[in-house]
Amino acid sequence: MAPIDPAAAEAGAGGRCDVGSGGGLAGGSTTPRLDGVSGQEPEVKAYYSQYNNLETHDGHLYRRWRAPGQGRDLLQLLVPRSLRSQVLELVHGSVGAGHYGNAKTLRRLRGRFYWPGCRRDVELHVHCCDTCTAQKGPTQRSTAPLQQYLVGAPMERVGVDVLGPFPVTESGNWYVLVAMDYFTKWPEAYAVPDQSASTTAEKLVEEMFTRFGVPAELHSDQGRNFESKVFGEICRRLGVEKTRTTPLHPQSDGLVERFNRTLATQLAILTSRHQRDWDRHLPLVLWSYRTAVQESSQCTPAALMFGRELRTPVDLVFGSPPEPGIVGGPEMDYYRRLRERLQVVHDYTRQAQASAGVRQKRAYDTRCRGGAFVPGDKVWVYCPVRKRGVSPKLCSHWQGPAEVVERLTEVVYRVRMPGPGRLVVLHQDRLSPYRPLTPADAEAGAAGSAPCSDPRDFSPACRDRPLRQKKAPGHLQDFVWGNGVVGDD
Fold first, then answer.
1. Which residues pair with 114 in a beta bridge?
2. What is the three-class DSSP state of 482?
3. To which H or E segment does residue 241 belong?
4. CA–CA gap between residue 295 and residue 431 (Å, rounded)
5. Phi/psi at 36 (nearest 5 deg)?
6. How far, in Å, CA of 25 to CA of 22, rounded?
7. What's the pLDDT at 400?
8. Distance between CA atoms of 214 and 235, rounded to whole angstroms?
9. Helix or strand or coil: residue 429?
10. For the whole model, what pTM was predicted?
11. DSSP string of 15-81?
12. I need a surface site. Which of 181, 274, 337, 397 has the fewest CB within 10 A?
């Protein structure tokens, strides 16, 4: 980058250096009159308020300023508008600048340069730096409101996932195929030797569907085993609606993902030191989970699935508690009473899950930031893709600018990626508004407008809280402030 020449810049700007206008504000031997600058732009008035601190050296105008924490004064070169973009790039994006944030960039700039509103321009420049956003990401990630999927009957929706790999067992198993009913929270977990499509489909059909029935909907991530033609054909023949999560957004299958963490924790407690017998402990872990009361349903998965509680070691020691209205009587009476009890329990569970859903959504949505996108918007896309032989710590995880093509749901969009223009379906949490630094932004910053006018902008500036109104203490009420006191912005 070429060195800065203020004299050349001033000449290129028609002999006007922003400071020299306003009735001889700069370069005069006497203090200019107030009525001479009253009709000038705010920037000239800002220089006028600091006239006693302005000095001329070698034909260039400087401001004398004492930095906080330093015992000496600094001479800051007053930068005209035509050079401010170049100065900002030098103190932020040059080889020795390091692409630091607002505070360090502002300190570096104030050590040499000054103009009114330089803090605001630094914040705008750092916020709109493509290199910083691609590597560091937005200062605050976009978070969409919680989208809930409530079900009202057993086997209405089942989530599946594969957990592992674990250390290979004596039976040759590496993975755990996990399935969970969304209504009853009934879990199934099968130790499998691989996660191929044929193994996954065979285990689900033979072990789960033949015992509990075919689910109306089967939800999974975008694993190759679940997206294969074999798995899709089996779902089509059985009449199962197959749905999937968006890429790199497992939160939409949060029920199974949360159970995976519980399952891994319980296996770590029960397994031996060599960790090659974990598949033997799967039935015990499932037994304990099926007989535990769930917070959202206020019932055990066993009670919701079968209408009765499973016997546990406590029941074997102290005996099972009596169940009035169920045990005893003819078989049809037992069936009728069991149906009535299941109806009552399911009604109660639906109400409990609805209340829990409202509570969870209220708590989750308090953390939401950012608004919806519309077709045509430019966005950053979070792509933490790992490549063989490349360190992820030295990669840029944000790509852009991409373009929003279509809004599919409230939080899911079809996006055209940069480069070849590949269309992908992404969740809003992986998107962030893209805002390039344009000449209009620079002019707006110099005129004193806010740096981030995007209504969806969620990235705060240095100050993320409103400033309190400052009030002088009572013992300083009679103190008279001098005219030479100026701010450092």
1. 78
2. coil
3. strand 241-244
4. 32
5. -75, -20
6. 6
7. 81
8. 10
9. helix
10. 0.62
11. S--SSSTTTS-SS-SSPPPGGGTTTS-HHHHHHHHTGGGEEEETTEEEEEEEPTT-SSEEEEEEPPH
12. 274
Which positions ≥6 away from 138 have C-beta within 8 Å?
380, 398, 432, 458, 459
The answer to whether residues 361 and 146 touch, using CB atoms and an 8 Å cutoff, is: yes
Place of tokens 């089967």: 218
Instruction: Specify burial of residue 155 (Cβ count, 10 A radius: 0-12, 13-18, 19+).
Output: buried
Model confidence pLDDT, tens digit, residues 85-138:
899 999 998 888 888 889 999 999 998 899 998 999 999 898 888 888 888 877
Tell me which residue of 144, 111, 139 sits closest to 126, measured CA to CA: 139
- In the numeric block, the tokens 């200062």 are attached to 139
List own/partner pairs for 37-43 with CB under 8 A and 24 or more apart: 41/447, 42/116, 42/447, 42/448, 43/18, 43/115, 43/116, 43/117, 43/446
CA angle, 232 then 238 then 242, to 5°: 40
Helices (H) and strands (E) in the chain, counts: 16, 14
Helix (H, G, I), strand (E, B) or coil at 255: helix
Give residues with Cβ within 8 angstroms of 144, minimum separation 6.
368, 370, 410, 411, 427, 428, 429
Nearest residue to 43 (alpha-carbon basis) of 104, 115, 106, 141:
115
Length of the chain: 489
Question: Which residue from 48, 115, 106 is spatially nearest to 82, judged by alpha carbons?
Answer: 115
Token pair of 389, please? 């032989």
Tracing tokens 């809930």 back to the chain, one arrives at: 148
How is 375-426 classified by DSSP, letter by letter? TT-EEEEE-----TTS-GGGS--EEEEEEEEEE-SSSEEEEE-SSS--EEEE
Asked if residue 283 lies in contact with residue 270, where contact means CB atoms within 8 angstroms, the answer is no
Q: Are 99 and 105 in contact (CB under 8 A)?
A: no
pLDDT in tens, 173-230: 999 999 999 999 999 999 999 999 999 999 999 999 999 999 999 999 988 999 999 9
pLDDT tens for 372-381 read 888 999 888 8
Which structure tokens are listed for 436?
A: 């390039």
- Measured CA to CA, the distance from residue 285 to residue 260 in angstroms comes to 12
458: its two tokens = 């969620």
Whole-Å CA distances, 211 to 205, 280, 284: 9, 21, 19
**Partner residues linked to 74 by β-bridges:** 65
